Automatic annotation (TrEMBL):
UniProt key word Metal-binding: no
Ranges of residues in domain Acetyl-CoA hydrolase/transferase N-terminal: 14-180
Pfam families named in the record: AcetylCoA_hydro
Source organism superkingdom: Bacteria
Any single GO BP term: acetate metabolic process
Keyword field: Transferase
The name this protein goes by in its record: 4-hydroxybutyrate CoA-transferase
The keyword Transmembrane is annotated on this UniProt entry: no
Organismal lineage: Bacteria, Pseudomonadati, Pseudomonadota, Gammaproteobacteria, Alteromonadales
InterPro entries: ActCoA_hydro (IPR046433), ActCoA_hydro_N (IPR003702), NagB/RpiA_transferase-like (IPR037171)
GO MF, one annotated term: acetate CoA-transferase activity
Length: 197
């Protein structure tokens, strides 16, 4: 029996101008979902996008989206985020990684929605957060609306990484590779160090 998926996001029913929205980060940024929001953003402004280290295309931090989004990052990474923080178009919230979940659960950073990248549901309806088992589960558990990008390239990981499809308010299906960080080229100094190790 096939698992029924939630409907596509009707963004104007899920969030409003000024909403605080978590975006899954590190290797599992839901890029297609963020793009879907951008394409359906007419009438929105000042949406705060809260995230950890976001690798890859952080288009929401670009100058062209400064009226639509303001990033609030826990880790400054990538040129677009760094430039946005430097220019005052994004905020940096310094916090210990172990304390981020409590910012969500105690309401200090109350979340209106969480945008996450998940695996397709299994036969019991459970989706995995895959590589995003950092603060994403806390965001999912402490937000008003969970919006997911169901991505067959997200691996199913063990442990406390599963959410049931019934917990997802809306979703899109989009297959995208997870972001990878390429190793730097090995130069003569690295080669010499390697000889000693």
């Amino acid at each position: 029996m096939a698992i029924a998926l939630p409907p596509e996001p009707n963004w104007h029913k899920l969030i409003k101008s000024g909403s605080r929205v978590f975006v899954g980060g590190t290797a599992s940024v839901p890029y297609a979902l963020v793009q879907h929001l951008i394409e359906n953003s007419e009438g929105f402004s000042d949406i705060e996008l809260v995230h950890m280290l976001a690798l890859g295309d952080t288009r929401w931090a670009k100058e062209e989206y400064k009226r639509l989004f303001k990033a609030n990052t826990f880790f400054i990474g990538g040129e677009a985020i760094r430039r946005a923080v430097d220019e005052g178009r994004a905020d940096y919230t310094p916090v210990f990684l172990s304390e981020i979940s409590s910012l969500f659960s105690d309401g200090t950073l109350a979340l209106d929605a969480a945008l996450v990248n998940v695996s397709p549901p299994d036969e019991f309806g459970y989706c995995s957060l895959g590589a995003a088992v950092d603060i994403s589960m806390s965001a999912v558990r402490n937000c008003q609306q969970v919006v997911a990008q169901i991505n067959p390239q997200v691996p199913r990981t063990a442990g406390h990484s599963y959410i049931h499809i019934s917990e997802i308010t809306a979703c899109i299906e989009a297959s995208e590779p997870l972001v990878e960080v390429s190793p730097p080229p090995i130069d003569s100094v690295a080669e010499r160090i390697g000889q000693y190790v």
